[in-house]
Write a structure and sequence with these properties.
- Keywords: Membrane, Transmembrane, Transmembrane helix.
- Helices cover 82% and strands 0% of the residues.
- The chain is mainly alpha-helical.
- The N and C termini lie far apart (59 Å).
């Protein structure tokens, strides 16, 4: 998947493809560390490797979740829907706030993981870990809400999405993102439910199907052709909206 997204990054250079390439690279490193931890008892006792493993999985999820969030907003911008007036929806569509909240969750998670090496007491480290996981969970729920909201609009107002009919990924993009959102929710609910139980969280019988597999399936869905709109499509739609706004102003000032 790493090679595929690197190829897509050159063919269709977009932020989402760059982030997913980086995510795949991080996951390769994280899975390599996990194999080392599983295969060697001495490595499993090395706190540095354990910290690196935890940090890599937190940073990687940032990319996966923000890609889904970005795609939902991009697909909405390509539709003919007028901007929402709902203050709650407008707040959840603030990219800077969402990205900042994700960064805060990652930083807190890194501090919690690093502090477990003696820099922080167990209670503080545990509290920080819970805070980081809670932020990730809330943001995952918000992203899922955004996706379902747009999917509902896609069903109730199909005429506003007529331009999005070029390929399978374009036609069904929002419903693919609903599946991705569900997978991310499964992953994060498991992480939140086991935040206080590292033994259970790292148990391979739970970890692979409830944390690793949802991420892998989400990445596979991201690779569906046509799902990620190009910068040219987004810019063309933006120019169209600006031209339309300019025409409206000209009509308004005519006597």
């Amino acid at each position: 998947m790493f090679i595929l997204f690197v190829f897509k990054s050159f063919k269709i250079p977009t932020y989402v493809h760059y982030v997913l390439s980086f995510f795949c690279l991080i996951r390769i490193a994280a899975f390599t560390l996990r194999i080392v931890l599983t295969a060697s008892e001495s490595a499993g006792e090395n706190i540095g490797i354990l910290i690196a493993d935890e940090v890599l999985f937190g940073v990687g999820f940032f990319g996966l979740l923000y890609s889904a969030y970005t795609l939902v907003l991009n697909l909405e911008s390509l539709s003919d829907r007028p901007p929402t007036t709902n203050p709650i929806i407008r707040l959840t569509q603030n990219r800077r706030m969402f990205r900042l909240a994700l960064l805060v969750a990652v930083v807190i998670g890194v501090v919690a993981a690093s502090g477990s090496n003696g820099g922080l007491n167990d209670n503080t480290s545990s509290a920080l870990r819970k805070t980081s996981t809670s932020i990730f969970l809330v943001l995952t729920v918000l992203q899922a809400f955004q996706t379902i909201y747009l999917a509902q609009t896609r069903i109730s107002e199909p005429e506003r999405f007529k331009r999005m009919q070029k390929s399978f990924g374009t036609r069904h993009g929002i419903f693919i993102l609903v599946l991705i959102s569900l997978l991310l929710l499964i992953r994060e609910v498991f992480a939140a439910a086991t935040v206080d139980d590292h033994v259970k969280q790292n148990n391979e019988h739970f970890w692979y199907p409830l944390l690793a597999l949802p991420e892998i399936l989400a990445v596979v869905l991201y690779a569906i052709p046509g799902l990620v709109p190009s910068k040219e499509e987004l810019r063309a739609k933006e120019r169209e909206e600006l031209n339309g706004y300019g025409d409206m102003k000209m009509v308004a000032v005519q006597p």
